[in-house]
C-alpha cells in the first residue's frame, strides 16, 4: 500500500491506481471490486459513485493506463537528447519490468486482445491509440528536424509501425515468451532502419576529448 504522500491526489485516482494493480495481478475477468476498494482505502459506495458499474471501471482503468504509458510521457521530456535517442528511450521504457509498467501493459493488452463489445470502451481505445501514434509521430518529426532520423516513408506510417511492433512485443513479453531485453533488441532492429548513419566526421568528433 503506498504511503499517504505517494497516493494519487484524488480518491478517484486512488481507486484507479488500485484497480490497475488488482487487474494487473488477476486479469479483467477475475478482479473483484471489494479488493480494489480495500487497496484504495475507500468505501464500495464511493467506488460505485465514481464508477457505477464494472464496465465504467474498466473504461476508467484503461484510460488511466493509456495516459501513463511510458512511450507517451517520456518521449518529449529530454530536450537535450536527439530525436532518435528520445524516441528509442521512450519506446524501450515500455518494457520496464517494474510492477507498475507491467500492470499498465497488462491492462492495455487485455482490453485490446479481443473484440470490444462496449462502444464507449471501443471509442476510448481508438482515441488512446490515435494519441499514441500522434505522440510517436511528433517524436519522429523531431528526429527528422535534427537529422538523427531519416526515412522516405511518411512519419505517420512509421509511427503506426512502431506502436504496432511495441504492442505485439509487449504481448509476447507478458506471455513469458521473450524477455524485456529480447523485446528491446527486436525493436532496435526496426529502429536502426530510420537512424541516420553517422559520418566519419561525426564519429571523429565524438572521440575527441
Automatic annotation (TrEMBL):
DNA-binding region: 32-51
Domain HTH tetR-type positions: 9-69
Name of the featured protein: TetR family transcriptional regulator
Signal peptide extent: none
Keyword annotations: DNA-binding, Repressor, Transcription, Transcription regulation
Pfam families in the cross-refs: TetR_C_6, TetR_N
Alphabetized GO MF terms: DNA binding
SUPFAM superfamilies with a match to the protein in the record: Homeodomain-like (SSF46689), Tetracyclin repressor-like, C-terminal domain (SSF48498)
Top-level taxon of the source organism: Bacteria
